[in-house]
Specification:
It contains 20 helices and ten strands. With 500 residues, it is mostly helical. The longest helix is centred in the C-terminal third of the chain and has 35 residues. 20% of the residues are buried.
C-alpha cells in the first residue's frame, strides 16, 4: 500500500484525558513523515499531490535557445519579440556614461568623440541584443597588428591601434570546451579560446583569446544547464514563450471575432426540398441569394417570399479589452518591461501617468548595466586610454551610467541653480581655484546642458592666474591692510559668475 493510501485509511483516535495526542508524540519523537510544505486534504482531494488535476501539472524544457531558426523567425515576425529584445539593449546604451576621477575633461571629451567615431555604443548595443535573442554574444576588440589568439596586454597597444568592436553571436563562434581558463579570476572555468566559424562575415576560421572578447549572456543558467548549452546562456524569449503564445493567441482570436461581428441568416421555407430537388429550383434560390448580397444596402430593397425570414445578429465584444490587457500585463511582467515602454500604452485609471513604472524599470536597467556592462566597459576603457590618449588608465578612474529618467525644465533649472551657487560659494571661500571652479561647471554640462561654452582655453587661462595672497605676506595690498584682493583674482571671480 502506498504512503498516500495509508494516510487516507488511517483511523483518527481521540486521546484519553491527560494523554498526549498521537501527532504530538510523533512530532516530539521526530518520527512523523516528511511534510510537503503545502496544504493538502486527501479526503477532499485538495492540494498538490492529492490525486486531482493540479497534481498532474508539471514543467518541462522548451529548449528554444537551441533553435536558431525559430528564434530568428520570432524576432523578424513578431513585433513583441522585437521590442522585448531591443528595448532593454537600447535603454542600456542610450544615455552613455559620466567619467569620474582625476582625468582632464579634455581627455574624456576625446574618448567620447572616439566612441562616436568608431560607433562603439552601436556595437555594444548589437552585442546586448544578440545575447538576449540567442543567449550569448561576443564583442571582439579589433586591435590592428596584433594576433587574435594571444592574450591582450594593454601596454602593447599603441596610440590609434584600436579600430572598433565586431559583434558576433553564439552561432558564429565555437568555444573550446576542452581548454578552459585555469587562472583564478572572473573568467575561471570559462572557455579560453573562441573559434570563429567559416560562415562568419569577418575573422572567419580565426581563434580568439578570451581576453580580447567582451562577453555578454542573456539569462544565466545553473551549472548543468550551462554545460548542456556549451557554456552559453539562455535566450530571454525561452522563459516567456508560453506567455507570448497566450498573448498572440488571444489577440488573433479577438481579431477573428471581427469576421463574426455581423451575422445574417435567411430562413427559406422548404429549403431541404429545394436542395434535394436541385435543377431550376436550386438555381433560382442561389440567384436570389446572390441578388440580395449584391444589392442589399441602405438605399436598396430586399425582395423575398412572404414565408421567408431574414435576420441580422450582432455580436457584443464586451470584456475582450480586459482579457487582452491581462495577457499583456503577464507578458510585460515576464520580460520585465512595463506596458508604457513595451506597448507604448498609457496606464488607465485616475492620476495614472506611468512614471512610477518607468522609475522601477529604469532602476532595473541600472542594475543590469552595473551587473553586465561594468566589467566589459572597464576592459574597453583600458584599451581606449591606450589607443586614444597613449597612456594607461588612471587608478582612480571610474565611470557611472547616466540615469535614463529625463528631468523636466523646472528640475533642471533648480539643479543648475543649486550646483552653481555651491561652486561659487566654495570659490568665494578660497577653497578652490578659478580653473577648478570652471572644470566643475563644465562637468555639470553633461547633466544640465548649461555651461557648454566653457572651453579648455578658458580653463587654462584661469589656471595661470596668480594665487590670492595671504594676510601679512609683505605684498602691497597686504601691507595696507585694506582687505582688498588683487585685480586678477577679482576678474577670475567675475568670470566664474559670468559663466554661471
Amino acid at each position: 500500500m502506498s504512503r498516500k493510501n495509508r494516510q487516507r485509511n488511517q483511523v483518527v483516535q481521540v486521546p484519553a484525558k491527560g494523554q498526549m495526542p498521537a501527532a504530538a508524540r510523533d512530532s516530539a519523537a521526530a518520527k512523523r513523515w516528511n511534510s510537503q510544505d503545502s496544504f493538502a486534504n486527501f479526503e477532499a482531494r485538495v492540494g498538490v499531490g492529492t490525486d486531482n488535476q493540479s497534481s498532474q501539472g508539471s514543467y518541462g524544457f522548451d529548449f528554444i535557445s537551441r533553435n536558431r531558426i525559430q528564434l530568428e523567425a520570432m524576432y523578424r515576425s513578431s513585433w513583441v519579440v522585437g521590442a522585448i529584445v531591443d528595448s532593454i539593449a537600447d535603454d542600456m546604451t542610450r544615455a552613455g556614461i559620466d567619467h569620474e576621477g582625476e582625468v582632464d575633461p579634455g581627455d574624456t571629451a576625446k574618448i567620447d568623440r572616439a566612441f562616436e567615431r568608431m560607433r562603439l555604443w552601436d556595437a555594444i548595443n548589437d552585442t546586448i541584443k544578440w545575447s538576449r535573442l540567442y543567449g550569448s554574444a561576443f564583442g571582439v576588440l579589433l586591435i590592428d597588428g596584433q594576433k587574435m589568439d594571444q592574450p591582450l596586454r594593454l601596454d602593447s597597444i599603441a596610440k590609434g591601434q584600436f579600430k572598433g568592436i565586431l559583434s558576433l553571436d553564439r552561432w558564429l563562434v565555437q568555444p573550446t570546451l576542452s581548454t578552459l581558463v585555469q587562472e583564478y579570476g572572473p573568467d575561471f572555468g570559462m572557455p579560453k579560446f573562441y573559434d570563429v566559424v567559416a560562415d562568419s562575415m569577418a575573422l572567419s576560421r580565426q581563434r580568439i583569446h578570451h581576453s580580447r572578447i567582451l562577453r555578454l549572456d542573456g539569462v544565466d543558467l545553473p551549472y548543468w544547464q550551462r554545460i548542456s548549452e556549451n557554456l552559453s546562456g539562455q535566450s530571454v524569449v525561452e522563459r516567456l514563450f508560453d506567455r507570448l503564445v497566450a498573448f498572440d493567441s488571444t489577440t488573433q482570436g479577438a481579431a477573428q471575432l471581427v469576421y463574426k461581428a455581423h451575422l445574417r441568416t435567411y430562413a427559406v421555407d422548404g429549403l431541404r426540398d429545394i436542395i434535394a430537388t436541385g435543377g431550376n429550383a436550386l438555381d433560382g434560390l442561389l440567384k436570389q441569394i446572390d441578388m440580395i448580397r449584391r444589392f442589399q444596402s441602405n438605399e436598396g430593397l430586399t425582395l423575398m417570399d412572404a414565408k421567408d425570414k431574414f435576420e441580422a445578429h450582432q455580436y457584443a465584444f464586451s470584456g475582450l479589452d480586459n482579457v487582452l490587457l491581462q495577457f499583456g500585463q503577464q507578458l510585460a511582467g515576464a520580460c520585465g518591461i512595463p506596458l508604457v515602454r513595451l506597448f507604448g500604452q498609457s496606464p488607465s485609471g485616475m492620476n495614472a501617468t506611468g512614471e512610477s513604472d518607468l522609475k522601477i524599470y529604469y532602476d532595473n536597467i541600472k542594475q543590469q548595466q552595473e551587473r553586465r556592462l561594468s566589467a566589459p566597459l572597464t576592459k574597453l576603457m583600458g584599451v581606449m586610454f591606450r589607443s586614444v590618449l597613449g597612456q594607461d588608465m588612471p587608478d582612480d578612474y571610474n565611470f557611472q551610467f547616466r540615469h535614463l529618467l529625463q528631468m523636466s525644465e523646472k528640475e533642471r533649472s533648480e539643479i543648475v541653480q543649486q550646483v552653481t551657487t555651491a561652486i561659487i560659494e566654495v570659490y568665494d571661500a578660497g577653497l578652490i581655484s578659478a580653473a577648478t571652479a570652471l572644470k566643475e561647471l563644465k562637468q555639470q554640462s553633461d547633466v544640465t546642458n548649461v555651461f557648454t561654452n566653457i572651453t579648455d582655453e578658458m580653463i587654462n587661462e584661469a589656471d595661470q592666474e596668480p594665487p590670492e595672497p595671504s594676510e601679512g605676506d609683505g605684498s602691497e595690498n597686504g601691507a595696507e591692510g585694506s582687505g582688498t584682493e588683487p585685480d586678477a583674482i577679482e576678474e577670475g571671480r567675475e568670470a566664474i559668475r559670468g559663466a554661471a
